[in-house]
Amino acid sequence: MSAVVLGLTAITSSLVHAADPLPSWNDTPKKESIVAFVEKVTKSGSTDFVPVPERIATFDNDGCLWSEQPMYFQAFYIFDRIKALAPQHPEWKDKEPFASVLKGDLKSALAGGEHALLEMAMATHAGMSSEEFDKVIRDWLATSKHPKTDLRYNQMVYQPMLELLAYLRSKDFKTFIVSGGGIDFMRVFAEETYGIPPEQVIGSSIKAKYELRDGKPVIVKIPELDFIDDKAGKPVGIYQHIGRRPIFAAGNSDGDFEMLEWTTSGEGPRFALYVHHTDAEREFAYDRESHIGKLDKGLDEAPKRGWTVVDMKADWKTIFPDR
Amino acid sequence: MSAVVLGLTAITSSLVHAADPLPSWNDTPKKESIVAFVEKVTKSGSTDFVPVPERIATFDNDGCLWSEQPMYFQAFYIFDRIKALAPQHPEWKDKEPFASVLKGDLKSALAGGEHALLEMAMATHAGMSSEEFDKVIRDWLATSKHPKTDLRYNQMVYQPMLELLAYLRSKDFKTFIVSGGGIDFMRVFAEETYGIPPEQVIGSSIKAKYELRDGKPVIVKIPELDFIDDKAGKPVGIYQHIGRRPIFAAGNSDGDFEMLEWTTSGEGPRFALYVHHTDAEREFAYDRESHIGKLDKGLDEAPKRGWTVVDMKADWKTIFPDR
Question: How many CA atoms lie within 13 A of A97 on its CB side?
Answer without folding.
Answer: 25
